[in-house]
Amino acid sequence: xxxxxxxxxxxxxxxxxxxxxxDTDRSGHLxxxxxTEAGHELMDKQIVIDDVYRIRAKVAAWIADPxxxxxxxxxxxxxxxxxxxxxxxxxxxxxxxxxxxELFRQLSYQDVxxxxxxxxxxxxxxxxxxxxxxxxxxxxxxxxxxxxxHEQLDxxxxxxxxxxxxxxxxxxxxG
Length: 175
What we know:
6-stranded mixed β-sheet; alpha/beta; Molybdenum Cofactor Biosythetic Enzyme, Chain A; Molybdenum cofactor biosynthesis protein B; MoaB_proteobac
């Protein structure tokens, strides 16, 4: 395996909420800050209501856009009310990333205890795009970014990372 260095990835952030606005979107802002501080590029950031078809349409459009390599969603991953992100997005995956949700819940247990079992956080790959669906709380987004995504979106992280799967010329180095 060749040693790959850091490459800025082109990212999109989708906040899923019936109540948040650009001014009150703490989780979306946290993700934007974290990814740009890490050297990645924000290509688009939007808010949609928690509706299966609106979520699916936006994520599908970004998957089809060759300018987007990473999609981060925040919100709609619980069990209450209209939470429907997993139902909206999982059908779009070519391959699920089962370990992402598993590791997130393991890390989250340290902060929220057994309540982490109610998180339906998930990840997957579709059309050479990595998609990570995070809970809506800024604490959960911080846990996911700091504990998983920061390293996994860095092409220099060894022995494997997701950056190498979404960069076409490196697509064989994923692990």
